[in-house]
Amino acid sequence: MIESDKYLMKCNQDFWNSLVEEHYVSEFYGVDRFLDGQNALDEIELDVLGEITGKDILHVQCHFGLSTLNLVRKGGCVAGADFSYKAVKVADKLSKISGLKAKFYESNVYELSEKIPDKFDIVFTSYGVLCWLPDLGEWARQIASRIYPGGKFCMVEFHPIMQALKKSSMGPVIIGEPYFNEEVMEFLPDGSGSYAIPEVPSRHTTYEWAHPISEIITSLVEAGLHIQKMEEYPYTTQGGFSECLTEGQDGLWRYPESEFGVPLTFSITAGKPN
Question: Which of 17, 29, 108, 119 has most Cβ atoms within 10 angstroms of its Cβ?
Fold first, then answer.
């Protein structure tokens, strides 16, 4: 990772540090509902992970640990990693409040092998994670380094096509940010908030990178992982932040103008050879 990218990631880190307290009390995350027993993982995530009872699991880019602790509730032996020190502090707090034991590490994706000495049966990540990473090659190598031989990497993520959707005067169309884009994208404060607290304006400039499906798969393969399964879904469980999607009666968000659907979510399971 080049030095300029390190600076941009530090800007993003400041942004995520600024969100933690508001996210923790937001209706979007529903911490109180989680503490009352509500599941914080959706059906896609649960299906991709499979049976996790007794498995050692590392949840990468875990934010303040809500989904991480849900993995504990499902029977996993779980650790979480995030680059926001505020998120890790709140995750530790939530672990104590919930009585669900997990170990949390302050670590960005590129420091996993340095900051986390253990290896795991499963490394897991989901939703809104890849756009914050400039270098997927090193991301995949770090992921692979934390998996036991015979273990697996599981991810669920918004489809890159979804990132290209933008509403125009003619209605929802696939335009906006290019699908193939090797340049960093700068987002200046515009009076809007985050996906969880849109009513709270952010004062931080953030930086994102676009990654097509081909780059994601190639990075994992070159890191020595074997793609076991990939799925694409014409819906997403989180679409309120997009102007182009419509929520159905089933609570899922879809592209409204397509007879056959547009891929909005994908999942990958990749194994590490023995």
Answer: 108
pLDDT score recorded for residue 259: 75
Q: Which CATH architecture has domain 3-271?
A: 3-Layer(aba) Sandwich (3.40)
Q: Considering Cα of 235, then 239, then 69, then 206, what sign does the dihedral take?
A: positive
Global pTM reads 0.94
Task: Give the pLDDT confidence score for residue 169 in this predicted structure.
Answer: 67
The residue among 193, 195, 50 whose CA lies nearest residue 128 is 195
Of the pLDDT bands very low, low, confident and very high (cuts 50, 70, 90), residue 176 is low
Q: Which of 127, 107, 13, 7 is nearest to 58 (CA)?
A: 107
In the chain, beta strands by DSSP E = 56-60, 77-82, 103-106, 120-126, 147-158, 165-168, 171-174, 185-187, 206-208, 226-233, 246-247, 253-254, 265-271
What burial class does residue 2 get, using C-beta atoms within 10 Å of its C-beta: 0-12 exposed, 13-18 middle, 19+ buried? exposed
